[in-house]
Sequence to fold (176 residues):
Amino acid sequence: MTLHPHIQARVRSEIDAVIGHNRFPSLGDRGVEKMPYLEATLLESMRWHPPVSSIVPHLPIRDDTFRGYFIPKGTTIIANAWAISRDPAHFESPSSFKPERFLDEDDSSSTPTVDPRHFVFGFGRRICPGMDLALHSLWMGVALTLWAFEIKLRDEDASEMKNWGDRERFTFGNTR
Ligand code: HEM
Fold:
């Protein structure tokens, strides 16, 4: 929110319009139809920096073949959520923080082809059972914080943070 003040302002104006100043946000206010930009901002936050960037290792209980690769039973499989989040085939300009990509208002050619909830919380039988609780908690945290506060950098921190948003946590030799 400090790096993208215009996004913070747009989320806050959505909260102001729907909730106003006379009551706190509550979970009953949650919904894509009610506050689409807040939902898009949550999705984009998780896509931009997946909290568990290399998903907990899995282990096949029998031999398997996937897209021509033979995977012997017992192999350690690490799904790379970070690489999925940075795949330009799924997300146009993947390093940019852009909630609009999840809204219809965006140019349809840049609409994501993958929902971040389908890789940020893991896969298959071991997918995170706390996903809904996590998303509701995040929504409450963001809605309450931006309802009450404006988050800004102090002047003395501004120059240090200026380019932080463009940094990548990881780089891969074979990124497209
Ligand atoms: C943004 C918040 C969260 C993220 C990004 C997240 C992500 C993940 C990921 C990636 C896994 C591994 C899934 C896999 O092995 O494929 C996992 C597992 C798990 N998560 Fe979460 N999680 C979050 C919040 C929570 C919350 C709030 C709870 C509980 C209240 C929770 C409980 C668990 C448990 C118990 C597992 C182990 C599931 C198993 O191995 O069968 N998580 N989570």
Notes: The chain has five helices and two strands.
